[in-house]
Amino acid sequence: MADTSVYVIAGINFVLTTTSIIYLLKHPREPQSMISWSLVFIFLPVLGPILFFMMGEEKLRRLRLRRRLRRNTPANNAAPNVSQPDPEPSFEIPDFLYGFIQMATRLSLRRATDGNQVTIYHTGKDSFLALLDAVSQAKSHVHLEYYIFHADETGHQLGNVLIYKAKQGIECRLLVDFIGCWGRKRWIFLEKLRKAGVEIGYFLPVVPWKGRVRMNFRNHRKIAVIDGSIGFTGSQNIGDEYVGLSKEFSIWHDTHLKIIGPAVADLQETFINDWLYATKRLLRKSVYYPQLTTQGTQVVHIVPSGPDTNTKILHHLLFAVISAARRSVHIATPYFVPDNTMLLALEAAAYRGVEVVILVPSELDMPLTLWAGRSYYRDLLLSGVDIYEYQAGMMHSKVVIVDDAWGMVGSANMDVRSFRLNFETSVFLYNQELAKQLEDNFQSMLVDAKQVELADTFHSFGISLREGFARLISPIL
User: Fold this and answer.
1) Into which CATH architecture does domain 65-94+111-300 fall?
2) Which of the residues 266, 274, 396, 415 is marked catalytic?
3) Which of 127, 146, 394, 465 is 20 to 30 A from 211 (CA-CA)?
4) Among the options 143, 165, 220, 330, which is catalytic?
């Protein structure tokens, strides 16, 4: 009987592995990723192929569903046209960014908007208080979209405001990622909000008995839109740790933006598209798109990216702007696992004499990712890149600053998952004043960081093996 079971399991493994390899060859991706998955098939019989079909796909086809739902929607529910600036920028930008802004427009199908007022927050507490204030003053609707929304003190504080506004008749919607908000405690909390009148949406729920087994394609965006005229986005989720109340990290750095002006329409459109996909409900009242007038002088470019596009938007844009840099490229990211293309771009910039500085945390909640990132240190240092590890707490900001003239703030990390598998939102800032604010904060964090020296990359056999293994499987982390 035991021998029969072994043969059955071996047969199942052969069928699953063969099917997985055929699919992998038919849908090729980077050789390193293909090799990593092949090793998983070998060392994890049966389980490896199952993990592949749960996590191995790199594209999500949702555009057809979006078009079908819009086509079947009554005409009187259609969205008003969101005003866009002329194709040729009417604002001044540095010469080296002109080609970049054209590229960003073509890839994202969204144009940069002038006339915005942008506030940069470097502490989670200040950003959260500003969000609470805006939500509490909502007159029409509140749209929130987060990867993580904890059922802790901070989550309940915002949740109570949402309940209060919902009872006032304000439309309140909260879209959360199913995996990011995994857990019975959070589900109970979100159900409480739903019963109080807050509409809840779950992005790509994993429900095996309904055939929904995909673990990838997570919605990593952090977006808040109040009354269609005030927007928040950046790297901050909702939870105690993000406002400095974590027992593990008393200091937690995030970079978040408050935007008032024409760019808010793009944040609203991003939320509405995601809400449509997650809930199959289309939001097309004119109140969601008020006439947005000039509120400031900042030029803002909202660029959503994700696996539902045929182009790796963020990957292309970061490669382009790093390649165009003349003086400096400063990057702050909690998860740093570059692919070969991004690695070459950073090294080439350093070889050209550009000051390339990378700031990462010294501790992470995902040790494999930290080890994988450290495996790249030696090659980067040899090319002239400076690397710092932040020591004073958790550095969760996702920021890129180029030549003190261009800045990026958003939800995306400098890793393969953000480039290819997650839904992200990035904000490009074409303004020297804002770039200087980002640079000043970057320099202040370097004060509490330890510079990595070349000697630090020579490890014992065990640590080298650990980092090498983490790097090998990084394409599937």
Assistant:
1) 2-Layer Sandwich (3.30)
2) 396
3) 146
4) 220
Whether 253 is catalytic: no
456 is catalytic: no
Q: What is the pLDDT of residues 289-309, one digit of tens each?
A: 999 999 999 999 999 998 887
Lowest-confidence segment of 63-77, 209-223, 409-423 by average pLDDT: 63-77
How much is the pTM?
Answer: 0.85
Residue 200 has pLDDT above 60, yes or no: yes
Does the annotation mark 210 as catalytic? Answer: no
Out of 143, 222, 258, 301, pick the active-site residue.
222
What topology does CATH give the domain 313-476? Endonuclease; Chain A (3.30.870)
Catalytic pick from 254, 266, 339, 403?
403
3-state secondary structure the chain: CHHHHHHHHHHHHHHHHHHHHHHHHHCCCCHHHHHHHHHHHHHCCCHHHHHHHHHCCCCCCCHHHHHHHHHCCCHHHCCCCCCCCCCCCCCCCCHHHHHHHHHHHHHHCCCCEEEEEEEEEEEHHHHHHHHHHHHHCCCCEEEEEECCECCCHHHHHHHHHHHHHHHCCCEEEEEEECCCCCCHHHHHHHHHHHHCCCEEEEECCCEHHHCECCCCCCECCCEEEECCCEEEEECCCECHHHHCCCCCCCCEEEEEEEEECCCHHHHHHHHHHHHHHHHCCCCCCHHHCCCCCCCCCEEEEEEEECCCCCCCHHHHHHHHHHHHCCCEEEEECCCEECCHHHHHHHHHHHHCCCEEEEEEECCCCCHHHHHHHHCCHHHHHHHCCEEEEECCCEECCCEEEECCCEEEEECCCEEHHHHHHCEEEEEEECCHHHHHHHHHHHHHHHHCEEECCHHHHCCCHHHHHHHHHHHHHHHHC
The pLDDT value given to residue 228: 97
Which residue among 152, 227, 254, 266 is the active-site one?
227
Say what percent of the chain tops pLDDT 70: 80
Question: Catalytic site residue 398?
Answer: yes
Fold match flag (65-94+111-300 vs 313-476) = yes
